[in-house]
Design a protein that fits this description.
Blueprint lengths: L2 E4 L43 H13 L3 H12 L13 E2 L4 E2 L23 H4 L4 H7 L15 H9 L3 H6 L1 H20 L10 H7 L5 H17 L1 E4 L5 E4 L40 E3 L5 E2 L7 E2 L1 E2 L12 E6 L4 H8 L10 E3 L6 E3 L6 E2 L5 H5 L1 E6 L12 H18 L8 E3 L8 H4 L12 H7 L18 E4 L12 E2 L2 E2 L7 E3 L32 E3 L3 E8 L2 E6 L2 E6 L6 E3 L7 E4 L5 E2 L32 E2 L4 E2 L5 E7 L12 E13 L4 E5 L3 E4 L5
Parallel strand pairs: 6-12, 10-14, 10-15, 11-14
Antiparallel strand pairs: 1-30, 2-3, 4-5, 7-8, 9-13, 11-12, 16-21, 16-24, 17-18, 19-20, 21-22, 22-23, 25-28, 25-32, 26-27, 29-30, 30-31
Helix pairs in contact: 1-7, 2-9, 5-7, 7-8, 8-9
């Protein structure tokens, strides 16, 4: 018997009560003697000390406490130089100094609406007006390259009398420039260069280039937490760097935080009357997304659905990671314009890790371009510009995001794994007409290994080195190091070598063989090295069943085919046969079974609910199939097909705000680069690790 529940929504985020939320001194050029507990001596091995010595030298030259200088660098880049390439927000080298000029930015195609209309519901999308959206959103998200906050590298270069280019490529000059900048900020704030480490709080806050005090304090707090805890790392160019712990340091949090004057542009106005849903360890604020009507049509509204998750039966089971492809302020502004037909629950600023909530967790943001995924997920946007050579994200952004996601997982019982913490590039197209145009953010340069470690989720990288066998479940875990710099192109143009989060999949165990081509991206042709061509890439943390193993190559079942990737000695994969892993194959007697892009209830379930049967309600992704003999990992237990009907902004349509729940159950599966769904009645579970 089909079940349905009727739920009337509450007021938008800005009008309701949100859910409950949870002096020491140091000599210039030195750090405290205590090392991080249990981690051995503080001195890095000889021959790899150049960066460590650069910190000591610059600290002495500019009279900046070395532990402050090193902690600032760690919170920016984890001491990585990234080969002189910029971040997605125009930061360079180990100190994350900024330089963004007009020529650095990729031109956005005229009329592009790819960041808009993300409800993933054809009924809702039919009311999206691209011309109106483009007209009202003109300039939103554009990067103001005249903003002084985007030219700290240029200022630092002037302070030390060096060409700006040297600060991009020479780590020693990057450190010197940042030290000079910190000293300048400290003098401006307190009038001197004190030996007391804690009194450098204001300079560190200013270094964040945050436009508001909350974000500046967020960054400064994280830096001083690093000073107190200490850190050690091996950098991307092989430098061993150690910051000994200084637990006695107590930051002096001044009443007034100096801020860098910002250029004219959209400013984010937080609503201090609303409490954000956020961990207590983060400084979060609220700037509500639009929930407004666009025309006389009550069904023409944006930018989310007012629901009551999970109390209304819509469980929150996943978190989707996004990249904004624009500025933080511009993204917030776009989500506050109801013509956008897009929103996210949270937006994170790159410079300081500031978290802004835009949609209450209980409500359904339009962020993933798939109705089923939107109904059961929380969307988190990460600031990143469309910089031509942008190839990494700031540590402050990773850190804030991980703290938020850990809290969300604990709050809603979401498993901390890559089946439930996913990228937009993991989201399937709901129907044939969507599949080829789905987003591919956060892309190849999001460090999933590091991110999942921050979330305290094992990524499997400590279990590589065992050659997998056919039938075993593996996690793909390529190292995010200079040892894994696959060729990546964009629009056919080669990108500079950089670590990436994926392995290429080939049709046979040879680098000269063709790459897999997804049928929604290629008409029978091979895959390419283009970043948006996701069909030939298996990404870190994704789990598959081994189809075959040959020498240094491992084949997995992927999108109805065998996909081979280089795996010498099991170096790019970890056997992951946990006891609760569900492996699926077509039911006995079936040559193949359909694959779906969404988990809707069966047509009969709509009877008596007042909700119209959705167009193509039962339609599968016709270019995909799961053939007999192939095995795929379930991305969780079976779920019941459901559809939340939200028609009019005031809930006035017949059947409005009804959750239709059917009897058909689906397994979410890792089908290829993206997740997908199969009906539980079409498949059978496989037990045993290897065949």
């Amino acid at each position: 018997m089909p079940r349905s529940r009727h739920r009337k929504g509450n007021a938008p985020l800005a009008r309701r009560v949100a859910a409950a939320v949870l002096a020491a001194s140091a000599a210039y050029g030195t750090v405290a003697m205590a090392a991080p507990p249990g981690e051995g001596p503080a001195e890095p091995p000889a021959g790899t000390r150049a960066l460590q010595e650069s910190f000591a030298s610059a600290a002495g030259e500019f009279k900046v406490p070395q532990n402050v200088l090193m902690a600032v660098a760690y919170r920016q880049t984890r001491w990585n130089a990234h080969g002189g390439l910029p971040s997605t927000t125009g930061n360079y080298n180990v100190m994350g100094l900024t330089q963004v000029d007009p020529g650095d930015l990729a031109a956005r195609p005229a009329g592009a609406t790819d960041g808009l209309n993300q409800s993933g519901d054809p009924r809702r999308s039919a009311r999206f007006h691209p011309d109106a959206a483009l007209r009202t959103l003109r300039g939103a998200g554009a990067v103001d390259t005249g903003d002084p906050r985007l030219h700290t590298l240029d200022l630092a270069a002037k302070l030390i009398g060096r060409p700006a280019g040297s600060l991009r490529t020479d780590s020693a000059q990057s450190v010197r420039g940042a030290a000079a900048l910190l000293a300048r900020y400290e003098k401006a704030a307190v009038g001197s260069l004190p030996a007391d480490v804690g009194r450098w709080y204001a300079a560190v806050a200013r270094y964040s280039q945050s436009p508001d005090a909350s974000g500046a304090r967020q960054f400064a707090d994280s830096v001083f937490a690093t000073v107190r805890s200490g850190q050690r790392a091996v950098t991307d160019d092989g430098q061993r760097v150690v910051l000994p712990a200084s637990p006695q340091v107590s930051p002096v949090r001044t009443g007034r935080i100096p801020l860098t004057p910002a250029a004219a542009g959209p400013a984010v106005k937080a609503d201090d009357a609303v409490t954000p849903q956020c961990p207590a360890t983060l400084r979060c604020d609220v700037a509500a997304a639009a929930f407004r009507q666009n025309s006389a049509d009550k069904a023409d509204y944006g930018n989310y659905d007012v629901t009551d998750r999970p109390a209304d039966g819509q469980r929150i089971t996943s978190i989707v990671i996004h990249d904004t492809e624009g500025t933080y302020a511009g993204t917030v502004s776009s989500f506050q314009n109801p013509t956008a037909y897009a929103s996210a629950h949270y937006v994170i600023r790159a410079s300081d890790g500031q978290v802004t909530q835009m949609v209450a967790d209980k409500d359904t943001a339009w962020h993933a371009g798939n109705k089923t995924v939107n109904m059961h997920s929380i969307g988190v946007e990460h600031e990143g510009y469309a910089i031509k050579a942008g190839s990494w994200y700031s540590e402050t952004e990773y850190s804030s995001s991980a703290l938020l996601v850990r809290w969300l997982c604990a709050t809603y019982g979401i498993p901390r794994d890559r089946e439930h913490i996913i990228g937009h590039d993991d989201v399937p197209g709901p129907l044939d007409s969507y599949a080829g145009g789905m987003h591919w953010d956060p892309g190849p340069y999001w460090d999933w290994n590091h991110y999942m470690a921050l979330i305290l989720a094992p990524d499997g990288s400590d279990r590589t080195g065992t050659v997998p066998k056919a039938g075993q479940v593996i996690s793909v875990v390529p190292p995010y190091t200079t040892g894994n710099q696959p060729e990546v192109t964009y629009g056919g143009k080669a990108q500079a070598p950089h670590p990436a989060n994926f392995v290429y999949l080939h049709t046979s165990p040879s680098l000269t063989s063709a790459r897999l081509g997804d049928p929604y991206l290629h008409s029978g042709t091979a895959g390419t090295s283009d970043g948006p061509d996701w069909g030939d890439k298996a990404v870190a943390g994704q789990r598959f069943v081994v189809a075959e193993q040959s020498g240094d190559w491992t084949a997995i079942w992927y999108g109805g085919k065998k996909g081979w990737f280089a795996d010498p000695g099991g170096s790019n994969a970890a056997v992951d046969d946990a006891a609760d892993t569900i492996v699926l194959t077509p039911a006995t007697g079936r040559d193949s079974v359909p694959v779906y892009g969404r988990g809707y209830p069966e047509t009969a379930a709509y009877a008596g609910t007042g909700v119209p049967v959705q167009t193509d309600n039962d339609k599968a992704l016709t270019r995909y199939a799961l053939p007999a003999g192939q095995r795929y990992v379930a991305a969780g237990p079976a779920v019941t097909g459901d559809y939340f009907y939200a028609q009019n902004i005031d809930n006035s349509a017949p059947g409005d705000h009804t959750l239709v729940t059917g009897n058909t159950t689906y397994y979410p599966i890792r089908y290829n680069h993206r997740l997908a769904y199969v009906k539980a009645s079409d498949v059978q579970r496989i037990t045993g690790a290897a065949s």
